[in-house]
TrEMBL record:
Family to which this protein belongs: Belongs to the synaptobrevin family.
Signal sequence interval, chain numbering: none
Taxonomic source organism: Phellinidium pouzarii
Domain Longin stretches: 7-127
Molecular-function GO term, any one: SNAP receptor activity
Protein name according to UniProt: Longin domain-containing protein
Length: 198
């Protein structure tokens, strides 16, 4: 998964102006970077101009996915992230929302007329920080933790069974379980004997 570019644009009357941009083209050879940068800039402006206000969309071109968030409103700000096809959409839109909100709060609208003078180093920070989409999306992070927990539990049960101990023998020998709990376990085992757990 890779983020290639992150940009903030002002779009008015179907014209766009790049106000801030950051790119990571380190995966391309030195000689390709200029051409790739031009391609990304051209398509970034094009998709920004063709995304209606208040809309989010993802557009695929070759091996690139352009995630666009047109916040609209008085400022007419649009954020665009260019990724490879593997980068998930939900974290991309989380980053775009964060980038556009931070830009809006830190950069006065009066400076939009001179984009070359707009200092916004946060885009470079976001570009580096969110290369791993789990950093942008709490749900993905929780899902990964759950998956890791399932693996650990699965390995633990397998390791107990690998030592030659059977779960049935442990239940029978357990003094901690009352007679009713043991009967419940045996009844449940009989009812589920037709099913195979994978």
């Amino acid at each position: 998964m890779k983020i290639y570019a992150l940009s903030i644009l002002e779009v008015s009357s179907s014209q766009s102006t790049v106000l801030a941009s950051a790119q990571d083209l380190s995966s391309f050879s030195f000689y390709e970077r200029g051409t790739v940068s031009e391609f990304l800039n051209f398509f970034t402006r094009t998709v920004a101009e063709h995304t209606p206000q208040g809309q989010r969309q993802s557009v695929t071109e070759n091996n690139y996915v352009f995630h666009i968030y047109n916040r609209g409103g008085e400022e007419q700000l649009v954020a665009v992230m260019v990724t490879d096809g593997e980068y998930p959409g939900r974290p991309a839109f989380s980053v775009l929302t964060k980038a556009i909100e931070t830009f809006s709060s830190k950069v006065p609208r009066s400076s939009y007329s001179n984009p070359a003078s707009i200092p916004f180093p946060e885009l470079k920070v976001y570009l580096a920080q969110y290369q791993d989409p789990r950093n942008a999306d709490a749900i993905m992070r929780v899902q990964q933790e759950l998956d890791e927990t399932k693996i650990i539990l699965h390995q633990t049960i397998e390791s107990v069974l690998a030592r030659g101990e059977k779960l049935d023998d442990l239940i029978v020998r357990s003094d901690a379980l009352g007679a009713q709990s043991k009967r419940f376990y045996q009844t449940a085992k009989k009812q589920n004997s037709c099913c195979v757990v994978m």
